[in-house]
Amino acid sequence: MEREWLISLIPLTIGVGFLGFGVYGLRRASALRRTGVTGRGRIVRHDTVRSDEGATLHYPVAAWTTGDGRLCEHASRFGRGSVASAFRVGASVLVRYDPENPRRFEIQGWDVATVDRLFTVLGALFVSGTLTALLIGLLTA
User: Fold this and answer.
1) pLDDT by residue (tens digit) across 71-92?
2) Where are the alpha helices (DSSP H) in the chain?
3) Residue 7 backbone phi and psi in degrees, to 5
């Protein structure tokens, strides 16, 4: 059983990481819905990142002015392979941000909780599946 336990650390670690990432994102989105302020922003550019595998991701950078007059310009935390016309450079967008920390924001219509939900579900499946397999292994040993 010793080897199986060590090998099971791999999916367990992956599951805990996915679960942590997903729960963090869902909590962040929930906090923005509760206490966030909505403002009108503009897409000023796209930060483009090319991965080692050749995939290109575009992260829209939104600029807006907070209620107290601070100018903000931040990139979305989500990148996509293509950019819809609603998020092209110069497009007007709604931005929901934390008034105390405007770096915590989302571009409505671009930043969706689907990715966070997916990571939460996958993480829960990895963790519960691994723990179930370990428990069955311990009970039948």
Assistant:
1) 999 999 888 888 888 899 999 9
2) 2-35, 114-140
3) -65, -35
Write the single-letter amino acid at 35. Answer: T
2 pLDDT above the threshold of 70: no
At how many degrees (to 10) do helices 114-140 and 2-35 cross? 150
The answer to whether 79 and 61 are in contact (CB under 8 A) is no
What is the helix (H) or strand (E) element at residue 62, kind and residue range?
strand 56-65
pTM beyond 0.85: the answer is no
As given in the structure block, the two tokens for residue 43 are 């897409």
Residues with Cβ < 8 Å from 116, sequence gap 6 or more? 21, 22, 23, 24, 25, 26, 29
How long, in residues, is the chain? 141
